[in-house]
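Suppose a colleague, Dr. K., hands you the sequence of a protein chain of 348 amino acids and asks what its three-dimensional shape might be. Before reaching for any lab equipment, you can write down a predicted structure in token form. Begin with the sequence itself:
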Amino acid sequence: MQFKPILTSLVVAASVVYTALGESPSQHLSHSDHPSSLHRRDIPGPPPPSEHGTLNFTLTGNVTRVLINNPPINLLTTGLISDLYTFLLWTQPAPNKTTPKVVIFSSAIPAFFISHMDLRNLNGSAAGVTAINQLIACGRLLQSVTSTAFIAQINGRTFGGGMELTSQMDMRFAGPDALVAQYENTNGFVAQGGGQLSLGPIMGKARALEHLLASRTIDAVTGTRLGLFNNHYDTAETLEREVDDLAARIGLYPQTSLNDTKFSLAFLSPTPEMLDAQVERFSPIAGGKVSQGLLKSTLEASDESDNAFEREIPNSIVEALYGEVLDTLAEDGRAGVLAAVEQEVDLS
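The predicted structure, expressed as tokens, is then:
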């Protein structure tokens, strides 16, 4: 599979926006940041319609809420990825254009925030390659559009590609049902869209490696302790209220200072060169015989619908792919391995 040629053309816009804002952080921003103009010129227009119907938008002042709605599990299909990509391109600042100060991503599906990528697109087809590269570009836009703060409001499962996008948003807040995991190692490849590289600065190298290599699930409490989540809340209602209050407060202040603050901390994010190098490594690994065989077995175990297999990822993948190996171990050894797989990270 060859992904790089398409990727180069897709992410060029993200790189240009980032460089331009870095040279002059306010050159593309509206001169409407005085409080007295808040209700006149500081309000962005509506984003472009969601072509595939997977995103619903609510505008409250200079805060845009994006409700992800791709039943049954918010699978990262070609349609959802395309809609996310189109929306994030729209958030790029330009002369005489007012963009949101804050974007909140939440889900219309209670059990899932953003699920993994449609595994059928990891087959080297033209549509699959485009989807992969648009997903990679989405992650880069989340980092490079420094005039908008992107917030994840998570109260469901987010795995694989969904976790990659989530980890590249500026802030993450969790509800009681939040569960996240990067499970790519179970299928013999890596998280290529920037999420793997982002977890190191967020969690620290050792903890990121534990999460990535073991493909373990992290819940709201553990994720907050690890620094993956800014905070967690006991109810979905409290989560939404707190996120709305934070977004409204950020929206009070001039966009020029928001832009420069986010840009100033960009040194903590992976560089474009690091991201490009990982994409180069991903192609031969994901397209190899081992990974393709594991992906085929995973698809045979799940039809990517709202079923027990999807709800139990990554543990269900471990059982489906490696259960026979585990069965060859002594009973006490197998129990120990399964306990390590099923137990959520506890680093207290």
